[in-house]
Design a protein that fits this description.
Layout: E1 15-16, E2 22-23, H1 45-56, H2 75-92, H3 99-118, H4 132-153, H5 157-163, H6 194-201, H7 205-221, H8 224-240, H9 252-277, E3 298-300, E4 303-305, H10 307-343, H11 350-375, H12 384-403, H13 405-408, H14 414-437
Antiparallel strand pairs: 1-2, 3-4
Helix pairs in contact: 3-4, 4-12, 7-8, 7-9, 7-11, 8-9, 10-11, 10-12
């Protein structure tokens, strides 16, 4: 959670005199009339104060009569509960001879003891709802997931798959492949009733994952534009990775009618309407690079620099940050399918469902912290949830690269490479035109 410093730095905050005018002094050690970077360009005090008040309304505060009780330290009662549990298990419970059963029980007790012990010390989330304890426990669950990923990373591929058998006997076996790209004829004039039959045959866990996933995505990112960009981009990525992930081989109408239009579109609409019903703040990710232009002229080594030049640089940096955030969200979603391939975990398995729920609910906190960091100049750093999510995604990528190297080295078809190069050049051209030419 970001808080403005009581003594703001002169190159970021500035000061206002009694007349309301904003003045700035050069940083200590800097030569007169020389600016080292874009961060030296000051923003008006009124703008910074407005952002500070705007974002402070959503912070979790103590003393409201409901959260204070749960935000106290209850180390002694928790210690007594855990001791009673261990005392009961030691003399009264008979030890099982099944190794896998004992391991499952150990994992369950370990997770429960860790959650109970670490929750009082975990950082609270950026929201008041549903409760600070909820976000503390979710933070601890993310730490447990990170420790599990780190354990798998230092095993061999086969050992990692067999270790998962301790959680579920059905894991550790090669997965069967279901084809979605056969018989892509959508309309048959002689048998129009087969359209509904074909749609019904395609209904499976992926429909539910698309609908639920993009509903929670909308609740997290709170923007129609960003969620629809993610929906379209993910379908394009599925086209591009069909040679590595066979489940991505779908018919055109499965990509764009069933997934993008129906499931994703309906999920986004439900999520955004839920936000409107709850009267929650919506985010404007496209508006982040529309930085206000304030009149100021600064001297640099290259000469006088007008205010719109500084504003242009800020806009470009924020646009790049939004693009990187979109890319990180797409990588997080792709990791589920690559983990399925390298660790043999079906998408419909409860482990995949727990991972999806953890990312999408925690994504609300991550989106809040990232958006506030980009929107509020008083916010000096990203929050703990963002750093934890980054660590989880990087660890998953490390497992995929370590165990799925042969899968990742399958060469891309020429038309896929040419299409992505053309798209990258088009995006680069738009960025140059939008921020440096227009």
């Amino acid at each position: 959670m970001c808080e403005a410093s009581n003594t703001a730095k002169m190159h970021r905050v500035g000061r206002s005199d009694q007349s309301g005018q904003v003045g700035h002094r050069a940083r200590r050690g800097a030569s007169s009339g020389v600016v080292a970077s874009d961060d030296d360009d000051p923003l008006p005090f009124e703008f910074l104060l407005k952002k500070k008040l705007e974002w402070s309304q959503g912070n979790v505060v103590d003393g409201n009569g409901r959260t204070t009780y749960f935000r106290r330290s209850y180390i002694v009662p928790l210690l007594l509960v855990l001791v009673c549990l261990l005392v009961y298990i030691a003399p009264f419970e008979q030890t099982a001879t099944n190794d896998k059963h004992n391991v499952r029980r150990y994992v369950g007790i370990f997770v429960m003891m860790f959650l109970a012990s670490a929750a009082p010390f975990a950082p609270a989330g950026p929201f008041k709802w549903p409760h600070p304890v909820f976000w503390r426990l979710l933070t601890c669950v993310a730490v447990v997931y990170q420790m599990g990923l780190a354990f798998l990373l230092f095993q061999t591929a086969n050992d990692s798959r067999q270790v998962l058998k301790y959680l579920d006997e059905s894991l550790g076996e090669p997965l069967t492949r279901k084809s979605y790209g056969e018989n892509c004829t959508f309309w048959d004039a002689e048998h129009p009733e087969r359209v509904m039959q074909k749609l019904w045959e395609e209904c499976d866990i992926y429909w539910a994952s698309h609908l639920l996933g993009f509903c929670l995505n909308a609740l997290a990112v709170r923007d129609y534009w960003l969620t629809h960009v993610m929906s379209v981009m993910f379908e394009l990525i599925e086209y591009s990775l069909e040679h590595q992930i066979p489940v991505f081989e779908e018919c055109w109408w499965d990509h764009w009618i069933l997934d993008a239009a129906l499931c994703n579109g309906l999920g986004i609409w439900c999520g955004m309407k839920t936000l409107e019903y709850l009267d929650m703040r919506l985010y404007n990710w496209r508006g982040l690079w529309n930085v206000p232009v304030y009149p100021s002229k600064r001297e640099t080594r290259a000469g006088r620099l007008e205010s719109h030049d500084w504003s242009r640089t800020r806009r470009f940096k924020r646009c790049l940050a939004v693009l990187l955030y979109i890319a990180s969200l797409l990588i997080m979603e792709l990791n589920a399918f690559y983990l399925k391939s390298v660790l043999w975990i079906p998408i419909s398995h409860w482990l995949q469902l727990v991972r999806l729920v953890l990312y999408l609910i925690g994504g609300a906190a991550v989106s809040r912290q990232v958006y506030q960091y980009l929107d509020d100049p008083n916010c000096k750093s990203l929050g703990p949830w963002t750093l934890m999510a980054f660590l989880l995604v990087i660890t998953e990528l490390a497992i995929i690269v370590r165990f799925g190297r042969d899968l990742l080295l399958i060469p891309f078809p020429d038309h896929i490479l040419i299409s992505w190069i053309a798209g990258f050049l088009a995006l680069t051209s738009w960025l140059v035109w939008r921020f440096f030419i227009e």
